[in-house]
Amino acid sequence: MGVNHKETLELLDVVVNKFNIDYGNMKICDLGNQRMWSSLNIEGIPITRKGYLLGDYFKILKGVPFHVSIDLNGKNGSLPIDLTKPITRPVVGGPFQLITNFGTSEHVPGQYWCFKNIHNLCDVGGLMYHVVPKVGNWDGINCGLKEPHCPYFYNSDFFQQLAELNGYEIVVNKIWNHDHIVPKRAREECVCVYRKVKDTEFVEEEVFSKIPLAVIHNPSKTGNYASGGM
Length: 230
Fold this sequence. Notes:
alpha/beta; Rossmann fold; 6-stranded mixed sheet; two-stranded antiparallel sheet; 22% helix
């Protein structure tokens, strides 16, 4: 899904300022080799026909000293690491003060380990920022897609329960839709920013599996994580 609107970046600035965090002292990890849409018209970083790289935005425009991205396909300089398996901090250079999930987790078949890896790689006091498809959206013709965008869809209650089970501070938990078509199509996204306030173990898999999570699609092309088709 990538970064499709400047509000994604503006919201991050608001949160970083709220907690007096300095980009110049941050280590950031993106899930997925994140691209930003060319329609954002961001000056000062390289652009290709597929848009900008989020890593360039952080490193060049925000002065972030350490940035990595994790993507099974290894594209755009990402680390070719499987999010469905345990990831240790030394392998990726963690812990991180910010982990972004801008439309990646919904493609990952091992949801438990995906969210557990986010938890484990995040430093105490760090932020975990999610922008993912909402249930009933991004799922076919009604939102201008030939097939659903991904197999997994979320709602705000999912993020509320995940926070309660793991002791996260919820900074933001809302829904937005940046579709430019009028009337807007079914492209709502769940937006959640957590702050990890204590160093605890991630919730057990049996408990995690009881959090409501919609599974509606067996992807053929779009969102086929195993084939690197994200």
